Amino acid sequence: MAYDYQGIVNDVLLELNEQTLDLVSEFNSAVGFHAFAKLAVNWSINYINKEEDWEWPWNKTVGTVVCTPGQGDLNTPITLSTAASIDWDSFYIAYDALLPEKNDQQRLPTINLSVYRQRYFDEDVAKNNSTTPLRTKPKFVVRDQDNKLILTGIPDQAYTIKYEYFAYNTPLSAPTDTTNIPEAYRHIIVKGALARCHAFRADENMYNFTMDEFKDDINAMRRVLIPQEVTMQSF
Fold first, then answer.
1. 117-135, pLDDT tens digit by residue?
2. 69 conformational bin, left if phi > 0, alpha if psi -120 to 50, beta if neither
3. pTM of the full predicted structure?
4. How far apart are CA 135 and CA 157, in angstroms?
5. CB–CB of 190/103 below 8 Å?
6. In sequence order, what are the residues at sequence separation of 6 or more whose Cβ sits closer than 8 angstroms to the Cβ of residue 109?
7. Which of 69, 101, 157, 216 is deepest in the core (most CB within 10 A)?
8. Which residues have a Cβ under 8 Å from the Cβ of 105 and sit 6 or more positions away?
9. Rounded Cα distance, 135 and 65, in Å
10. pLDDT tens-place string over residues 148-172
């Protein structure tokens, strides 16, 4: 079966000896337990993602903002509707061949908002209200309380700033919708959906057994995909 919403739901139904939803019309009009099986698949995908607060490799995304010369407050919220978490150590000014000068790639360390207010705010206000020569290539990025970006110093050009974040998953809806979880872990999605279906049927023994296997499979996936800290020792 195809690795899409309809295919995964049918995997679950086969495991439970239920009639599969082979036609698109059957899938879209499913009712009762078959409709619940569709919900169970999305529940399983969501559960897997929540186990790492969405910080799985398949959720990593590169974001881009372009600053305005003379404007330190980018007034650009990091997309809270799609960003589950933001790597605040990943900000950098990207190389831009179209900028006339000072266009080398440069990392932008993040500093605390209170540090910014104490050390840089007054100076930036003065530069923002002054002539162009006092503006410069930004050195730091600051996370405001509403998740907007503040740059210091005040940019003198329209630099492109890139960063990494982990995006929320979009629930599957159409039969051909696909998840960004690799197909190698298809069986884990099915296992989680099966556990949810056993709970729906009030089969406590099968629920506990399947849920334990589901969690074990997630841990195995975690060991493979999430980098582990390695302690180096010299002898």
1. 888 877 776 666 655 667 7
2. beta
3. 0.82
4. 9
5. no
6. 89, 91, 139, 140, 141
7. 157
8. 92, 93, 94, 95
9. 19
10. 788 888 888 888 889 999 999 999 9
